Automatic annotation (TrEMBL):
<dbReference type="InterPro" id="IPR018121">
    <property type="entry name" value="7-in-absentia-prot_TRAF-dom"/>
</dbReference>
<comment type="similarity">
    <text>Belongs to the SINA (Seven in absentia) family.</text>
</comment>
<dbReference type="GO" id="GO:0061630">
    <property type="term" value="F:ubiquitin protein ligase activity"/>
</dbReference>
<dbReference type="Pfam" id="PF21362">
    <property type="entry name" value="Sina_RING"/>
</dbReference>
<feature type="domain" description="RING-type">
    <location>
        <begin position="74"/>
        <end position="110"/>
    </location>
</feature>
<comment type="pathway">
    <text>Protein modification; protein ubiquitination.</text>
</comment>
<dbReference type="GO" id="GO:0008270">
    <property type="term" value="F:zinc ion binding"/>
</dbReference>
<feature type="domain" description="SIAH-type">
    <location>
        <begin position="127"/>
        <end position="187"/>
    </location>
</feature>
<dbReference type="GO" id="GO:0005737">
    <property type="term" value="C:cytoplasm"/>
</dbReference>
<keyword id="KW-0863">Zinc-finger</keyword>
<dbReference type="Pfam" id="PF03145">
    <property type="entry name" value="Sina_TRAF"/>
</dbReference>
<protein>
    <recommendedName>
        <fullName>RING-type E3 ubiquitin transferase</fullName>
        <ecNumber>2.3.2.27</ecNumber>
    </recommendedName>
</protein>
<dbReference type="InterPro" id="IPR008974">
    <property type="entry name" value="TRAF-like"/>
</dbReference>
<dbReference type="InterPro" id="IPR013010">
    <property type="entry name" value="Znf_SIAH"/>
</dbReference>
<keyword id="KW-0862">Zinc</keyword>
<keyword id="KW-0479">Metal-binding</keyword>
<dbReference type="InterPro" id="IPR001841">
    <property type="entry name" value="Znf_RING"/>
</dbReference>
Amino acid sequence: MGQINVFYSPTFVDSGFVMASGNSYFDEMRKNPEVTDLPNSDDPIGAENLDDPVHHLPKSSIAVASSVRELLDCPVCLNAMYPPIHQCSNGHTLCSACKPRVHNRCPTCRHELGNIRCLALEKVASSLDLPCKYQSFGCVGIYPYYSKLKHESQCTFRPYNCPYAGSECSVVGDIPSLVTHLKDDHKVDMHSGSTFNHRYVKSNPHEVENATWMLTNVHSPTSSNKNLFKSLIVPQVFSCFGQCFCLHFEAFQLGVSPVYIAFLRFMGNDEDAKNYGYSLEVGSMGRKLMWQGVPRSIRDSHRKVRDSYVGLIIQRNMALFFSGGDKKELKLRVTGRIWKEQL
């Protein structure tokens, strides 16, 4: 790679930007990657940040920006570098997060790093306008380099995390791909329609674990099968109004008391979730509990929604009352519906 001459008063430093390749030292450092924070708004270089995208940028300018953009990748963690960008006396750069990790030694030439700041590269970065990394998901915005990371953290086109609650799943994607993933990989039950009538059963109601358990469809063809009442981790997905919703039901400890909670999550962003409402109901023996609210977006994790207690909450004593019989087996029928708000 060519050399870029950077002048520092009163001395001159030949600052060649060298990218790492085939170096075992870099491989070792990348085992524990770190992501740098956004530049502080007080930074003179980052003060030109803009939130609005830059449109109609010529294709040739984007190509040039992309090649220069490669200079801004830290050779250790491979993340984008933000001020302060450090360099050694030979001009090799690295990000501020990696500097303490290399014990003040340049990972490329092993010279002492010192406190040289690469102001030239920081200035070059401030002149770049780049496309959002979620362009393939539909984002068409072009953003200043120092605004891009902030935009991407809030981009409405950024992929969603898998909403499956039975285990930690690292899969991300758009809504159609996640629906397919839930069906094929997690074997989630899919339902069409805006109403539901499910039964939750557990043989020993005194055992309460932080786990998600099964809601079985009362109207399914297998509803007469005794195996229907086994406790399984099988969430439910409902398709209606051209959207998908995840229904959750689980038991967990609230302090020293076990409780049951049911809630609905919207497979989309927060703004679109506000266009829908839902109700949940459980009852028996002349008593009834109801909940009505707005589904939470899957942008919020399952645990975050659960721990906010936004949903139908049933204390164990009430749950056993609704179960009837000798109270040795938990049998709760949960009904509900989803509707689209009239705007």
